[in-house]
Amino acid sequence: MRFLDEVHPLTKTNKLSSGYINRAMEILKQQHPEIGGLYCCTMGGSLTFPQANGPQWMQIVHDGSDHWVLVAKGFSQPNYVLVYDSMAGSNWRSKHILSCMSSLLKTPKKEMTYVIKTCQWQGNGFDCGVFVIAFATSLANGQDPALLLYDPHELRNHLDNCITSGELSPFPSTLCRVKRTRKELVVSESVFCHCRRTAYMLPSREWKMIECEQFMEWFHTMCIDNFPVNENDPWLCKVCKS
Question: How far apart are CA 158 and CA 153, in angstroms?
């Protein structure tokens, strides 16, 4: 996982570490304080993102393997969480990113609905971090990244100049005049518990879940204070017990 705090020099082919991603989000937050989210990206490693505040928010999220993705809400389709992934395929479903999204959204509904946007694909295996910063900068400046065609040969030079100057400006791009063959996908994912997270769990007891027999809802050990010693015993949540 690329969770390193230092901002390493940008080369032609290096993958962006968390230090570089965090610095970019810090600059965006300074320039656009009205936009929520933009938390330290390393929170995603432990799935501990807080709920994002405000009508518009965005967050660059690591997938737990070796890839960066931008998630956002309140922009071109305000009713959905938008997913901008420069490597998204037709069967996109990253359990780790979906869990992070659900924490940021914390919807009171039974499902979280999101849209896989048809943004530009990267042409190599190392530019995902550069693309997500370009996507985030476009969104923050009122542009929809799905409608833009970025110049891959200029992205790194532009990013390097922005980080050096401490100001992120829109990346070199033109309007995409050719309709992309991929279609936007609208997908729903069930969420549970008081925390309104997806069913994805980290391998520890705190993440184990138990179902309330009456309410028919699942809860995490860490989110309740009356988890039974024997998790196979019948159990009622506090609301149903009172």
Answer: 10
